[in-house]
Every structure is written in structure tokens, then in C-alpha cells.
Amino acid sequence: MRLWYRFCRFLYRMYFRLYHRGRVYNAKRLPDEGGFILTANHVSFLDPPLLGQACKREAFFMARDTLFRNWLAGRILRSWNCVPIKREGGDIGAMRTALRLLGEGKAVLMFPEGTRSPDGRLQEARAGIGMIVARSEAKVVPVRIFGSERALPRGKKLPRPVRLIVKFGEPFTYPLPSNFDQLRGDALKAVYKEIGREIMRRIAALEPYPDPPGGLPVGSQKGLAKKAGRLL
What is the pTM (predicted TM-score) of this model? Predict the structure, then answer.
């Protein structure tokens, strides 16, 4: 891990813990080696650094290209491993970069929804995430962020001291159909879309509290969820 990246991660980690009373659950689920894809919901500009500080490995981020228009902002973003990607249409160059990074054993962060949710609710995944998962055959780690839509909502410039929670799900490898290499056109797009839907289902299943050891009755889990909700 580069020294500059490590330094910036340390600063944001302190900010996350002290100002937002942040919590990270299940960080041990992240693979220690090999390429994998972090797939998270997206509701705020806080989300990328929030995930970066929670990831024990150096991560690479797919970020919309408009953020790089200012030369200084672009230089800083690239120093933080951000890769520009066009939101409209398929950005073949950015997708090839993501596949190359995964092939090199790197951790790549992607937001399946493609952009920030306008209301904080989970949106439908775009086909691009399905294509990268299918072509790379890399492990996928679903992640859910809680609270950032209220800490720094759309249109606001200064974050509020709202508690933030990051929870990692179980890594999984999507089982491609046996005839995947022969699929074309709509049949291929259908597989990509189903991969995206599976990722969003796994993100939606994550709750803002620690997983109970050995499992708890449903009522007890709902009680924990309500308690966590009061803290957010």
C-alpha cells in the first residue's frame, strides 16, 4: 500500500470514527488476497472514502468522469486510485481498466446503481456491473452504507455529525450458466441484469447491526435493528 494512500486513509478513518461515531461490521470477510469487487449502495459523496477507510486493502474506485474536469481535482482523485468512468453508455475503456485491475489481484469498488440514489432507497443495478462480474469471474463482496444520505445529502456542502455504519456481506462468486460463452445479444444482457439484481438483493439483506453469534430469534434481531435505527 502506497504511503500517500495509507496517510489519507488514516486521516479519514479518524474523521469517520470521531465525527460520525462510525462503525464497521464484518471487515474480516474481505479477502486477504486476489482480486475482488466491492459492490455498495450509493447515496452520498461520503461513500467512496467511507468504504476506502473500511477496507483493509488498498482499493481502486470507479468514479464519474465529470469529477476529473478540474485538473487539480483530477490529479488528487487519481492519487486516491480513482478511475474515471462515463455514466451514460458503456465506457469500454474504464471497464477494461477494471478487468485489468481485478486480473492483477486488486480490490475494485463499484456502485451497481451507477449514481447516487435520489431518495436513499436502493435502485436497480445497471448492466455494467454484471458484465464486469461475469467477465472477471472475481469474487463479489456486497456492502451496505447506512446514514450517509443524512450526513451529507444532495445539495449540502458540510457533513452533519450523523452516525455512519458500513456492513460487509459474505463474499460470493456468481454461478454463470454453462453456455455463457455462447450467449449473445438479449440473452447475454439478461445474464448481466440478473447478476446486478442478485448483488442488490444481497445488499438489501444487510442490516445496520452486528450479526448475532449463532443466530437469534427473529424478534430479537428486530429489536437490535430498532436500537440501531435510534442510533443513526
Answer: 0.86
How far is residue 214's CA from residue 212's CA, in Å, rounded to a whole number?
Answer: 6
Strand partners, 141: 38
For residue 107, the cross-strand partners are: 36, 59
Residue 33 C-alpha cell reads as: 488476497
CATH class (in words) of the domain with range 3-231: alpha beta
- pLDDT single digits (tens) 116-163: 998 889 999 988 899 999 999 999 999 999 999 999 998 888 999 999
Q: What's the order of all strands across the beta sheet hosting 36-40? A: 23-25, 165-168, 139-146, 36-40, 107-110, 59-64, 82-85
The Cα–Cα gap between 17 and 220 comes to 27
**3-class secondary-structure state, position 183:** coil
Type of residue numbered 63: A
Please write the tens of the pLDDT for every residue from 34-61.
999 999 999 999 999 999 999 989 999 9
